[in-house]
UniProtKB/TrEMBL annotation:
Protein name in UniProt: Uncharacterized protein
Residue ranges occupied by any Disease resistance R13L4/SHOC-2-like LRR domain in the UniProt entry: 414-760
Region: Disordered, residue numbers: 819-851
Record lineage: Eukaryota, Viridiplantae, Streptophyta, Embryophyta, Tracheophyta
Single annotated GO MF: nucleotide binding
All residue ranges annotated as the Disease resistance N-terminal domain in the record: 12-103
Family: Belongs to the disease resistance NB-LRR family.
Protein source organism: Urochloa decumbens
């Protein structure tokens, strides 16, 4: 178990070594003659980092080695703080004292000598377990507590020489219950999963189906399942480790690891042993990121983008050639989901937007984080901080301001990150000169004065505030030169200060759509990689869209319109100008994710006016609540596009063909008002060879959908929303061809009858019921198991959707009439000109003949 903690100690090593290497290259160091000493620090810390990496796979450390590890960790933290302070002064071209370098050289030599002595007294570890076999340990557990060591604190108060004491308790562990009972029959046992149920759960997670097995593995799967003791979380954790692992040697290793762990510590809980195995199976460089989840309270929904940006600010993620730190962090997040260490929340287009940590796993990693002094969590019940080590990462659950304030000022001097839930601290954060991360997103009662003097936190990399009492950012926020993430969503800030352009390291900016940007600000934020949400509230702000083309690092952009577009020709001219700005934005920078939302007035978007480059870098393109006239031909050339969301006025065969030609398309969500001749037919020749998710909404018309044999061969999830009554009346067809989707695993249907909410059981002869029966019959013929979900929309949602579509269709028809009228007028003028020319020619001929 100690190795889990060693990994946290190594978390500070990589950024420290990187900074020391960078410091060696600085001209100031060479001039001041510090090069030799800094190289010594770098080399020695590198060697000790290598030792820590070897210890990372050792589950138990002797006391001497543990003490050496803790002291090395504190030394590394202090050294990094000093290096950061040194670099700030150097960057500002100020002369700084270099005495701290000599001081750390002396400390490092002393620590190295202690390590050598510790290696010579390994045999003394037997003394630590001298009394372990004298008496049997018992546990008193109250309401689902698994800790077997509690008995040691109360055994002196109980006479139990003959095992005659009796304790009533509740626990999920039969072993704990039995150790408190003189007779095993005094324990009432809740049955775990049966072997058959355990086997089904195990194989479904490991192989994707409970009916698939591999004969070359022999009895190994069954032996592993038996060792999981019917515990669902244990089964999921182990099967996640073995997912897609077909080599028999890998299965043998897992089986042996479980057996050896239980043999060494037969009194330990199986669940803890299995969680420990799952933890150590995680790649070495990801374990610190998992421990970091202990910052958050139980059942807390953790937003993915916030979590990844926090990892980056803490220095846990190192950049790799060709991938940004955020992309690497996203990979870590998904890996934790695949290993069932976190539970995905709010899944959209195959990606979880948030997560939650299972209670048992959270208890496990919290225990490790506290023992390592990796995270310090305090609340109003704790009046003082008593650890011998300095607090590095502080999480405050502040329900009682007075109590928390008592210790706050004494522990903030070396803290690197502060997360506050509840009320804000009364103590100033200024003593925390080493602060890198400040998360006040769940802190109630914040006001502008709490952010005063914020510019003095010179090392700050992450700042998040969400209080509605915050109305402005400090004017000197531009002095936070290392700030990478700024999140002010949920505040009442209406304008960003001009000084924000000085934040040349700012990569992630999260604001509400009603916040305005000063003129010329966008084009000067050259490090920006993500911006959510840029609100367009005036014609002047539209022009700022052109500035985004200067941001070559920008990867994610969310734009929301809040404009009042006038009717008639003036409105149409403004819309055309917007199209040009959007086209410039879309095809002149390296965007990966683009969200365009809420265009007012019902004007459809004419994408044919745009001219994209090839290849295009877009991976996700979402037009939400903004319709397009038709799918442009160039969209089929988007080689990297994996997610596409569109609202189309009328879906024709040519639209389906273009969309099907997108080679990497995995998720497609469409909304439409009409289809050609009342039908949308998906042919096998249409493409969609990689599509996994398909959703289409066709409420506002009687258009029917039909899948032909061989269409969408890899689609796993289909979501349909339509008005079945309209479809039956206009086309007489409710046979969707669902049985032709050979890979379908989940099918969702939202049925709207005459645009109002309808009860499926109301009338057996109703069109809706007949459609449901047809769908069920189709599903039953599928070769694989499929989950079916029938839903009814809320009436107001239907009415709002239909109203929006009717407005959009009305605008489209008006535009078409204007275009047709313009063409007719042009034709009439041309005809009049031709007639005039003919008359003039006839007159000239008549004049020539008379002469």
């Amino acid at each position: 178990m100690e190795a889990a903690l060693v990994r946290a100690s190594t978390g500070v090593m990589k950024p420290l070594l990187s900074k020391l290497t960078k410091l060696l290259e600085h001209e100031y160091v060479k001039v001041k003659g510090l090069h030799k000493k800094i190289r010594f620090l770098r080399d020695e810390m590198s060697a000790m980092s290598a030792t820590l990496q070897m210890l990372a796979d050792v589950e138990q450390l002797n006391p001497e080695m543990r003490d050496w590890r803790d002291n090395l960790r504190e030394l590394a933290y202090n050294l990094e703080d000093c290096v950061d302070a040194f670099m700030v002064h150097v960057d500002n071209e100020r002369d700084v004292p270099s005495g701290f370098i000599k001081r750390f050289v002396r400390k490092l030599k002393k620590l190295k000598a202690r390590h050598e002595i510790a290696n010579q007294i390994e045999e003394l570890k037997a003394c630590a377990i001298e009394a372990s076999d004298r008496h049997k340990r018992y546990l008193v557990v109250f309401d689902d507590v698994w800790d077997a060591k509690i008995w040691a604190t109360i055994k002196l108060s109980l006479v139990n020489e003959n095992c005659g004491s009796r304790v009533i308790t509740t626990t999920r562990s039969i072993a704990v219950a039995r150790c408190l009972s003189s007779q095993g029959n005094n324990v009432y046992q809740m049955k775990p999963l049966s072997f058959d149920d355990s086997r089904r759960l195990f194989f479904k997670r490991a192989f994707g189906s409970e009916n698939i097995s591999f004969t070359h593995l022999g009895s190994i799967p069954d032996e592993i399942i038996r060792k999981c003791d019917g515990l669902p979380l244990a089964i999921i954790a182990i099967s996640s480790m073995l997912a897609d692992q077909h080599a028999k040697s890998e299965w043998d290793r897992v089986l042996n690891d479980i057996g050896s762990a239980l043999a060494k510590n037969p009194g330990a809980e199986n669940m803890t042993t299995i969680l420990s195995m799952s933890y150590f199976d995680i790649p070495y460089h990801q374990r610190t990121c998992l421990l970091y989840l202990s910052v958050f309270p139980e059942d807390y929904v953790i937003e993915k983008q916030c979590l990844i940006n926090r990892w980056i600010a803490e220095g846990f993620i190192q950049e790799v050639q060709g991938r940004t730190k955020y992309e690497i962090g996203d990979g870590y997040f998904n890996d934790f989901i695949n290993r069932c260490m976190i539970q995905p929340i709010d899944v959209k287009f195959g990606e979880a937007e948030a997560c939650r940590v299972h209670d048992i796993i959270l208890d496990y990693i919290k225990c490790k984080a506290v023992e390592e002094n990796f995270i310090t969590s305090l609340d109003s019940s704790e009046h003082a901080y008593t650890s011998e080590y300095k607090i590095r990462r502080l999480c405050v659950n502040n329900r009682n301001e007075e109590h928390v304030t008592l210790w706050a000022s004494a522990v903030l001097s070396h803290v690197r990150s502060v997360t506050i839930f509840g009320q804000p601290l009364q103590t100033s954060l200024l003593p925390s000169t080493a602060l890198r991360l400040l998360d006040l997103g769940d802190c109630n009662g914040m006001s502008d004065h709490h952010l005063s003097s914020m510019e003095k936190l010179v090392h700050l990399k992450y700042l998040r505030v969400c209080s509605r009492s915050i109305t402005e950012l400090p004017g000197k926020i531009g002095e936070l030169h290392y700030l990478q993430t700024l999140d002010v969503r949920g505040t009442r800030i209406k304008e960003l200060p001009p000084g924000i352009t000085k934040l040349q390291r700012l990569a992630h900016l999260y604001v509400d759509c009603d916040i305005t940007f000063p003129d010329g600000m966008i084009g000067r934020m050259l490090s920006l990689e993500e911006l959510r949400t840029y609100g367009v509230q005036s014609y002047k702000q539209q022009k700022s869209l052109q500035e985004f083309s200067k941001l070559t690092k920008l990867r994610t952009l969310e734009i929301r319109w809040n404009l009042n577009i006038p009717d008639g020709l003036e409105g149409m001219i403004q819309v055309m100008v917007i199209y040009i700005y959007l086209g410039t934005l879309l095809f002149s920078c390296n965007l990966h994710n683009l969200y365009i939302m809420d265009f007012p007035g019902g004007y459809p978007l004419w994408l044919d006016l745009w001219h994209p480059p090839t290849p295009c870098s877009l991976r996700k393109l979402c037009f939400q609540r903004w319709a397009i006239h038709k799918v442009p031909s160039w969209m089929g050339c988007f080689e990297n596009l994996g997610v596409l969301e569109l609202m189309i006025i009328r879906v024709g065969p040519e639209d389906v063909e273009i969309l099907g030609a997108i080679p990497s398309l995995l998720f497609l969500k469409l909304s439409t008002a009409r289809g050609t001749n009342g039908r949308i037919i998906i042919h096998p020749s249409n493409g969609f060879r990689c599509l996994k998710y398909f959703s289409i909404c066709i409420y506002a018309c009687g258009t029917s959908l039909e899948f032909e044999v061989g269409s969408m061969p890899k689609v796993e999830h289909v979501n349909l929303e339509f008005a079945v009554h309209k479809m039956e009346c206009q086309n007489g067809a409710s046979n969707l061809g669902i049985h032709h989707l050979s890979s379908l695993g989940k099918f969702e249907v939202t049925i709207c009858n005459n645009y109002v909410c309808h009860d499926l059981a109301e009338d057996e002869d109703d069109d809706t019921v007949r459609c449901v029966a047809s769908v069920i019959n189709d599903i039953e013929t599928l070769p694989s198991y499929c989950v079916v979900n029938f839903q009814q929309p809320f009436a107001d949602e239907c009415e709002h959707f239909v109203r929006s579509w009717r407005e959009c269709i009305k605008r489209t028809e008006w535009l078409m009439e204007q275009l047709a009228a313009g063409e007719t007028e042009q034709e009439n003028k041309e005809e009049e000109n031709e007639q005039t020319d003919e008359k003039e020619m006839e007159q000239q001929e008549d004049y020539g003949g008379s002469n």
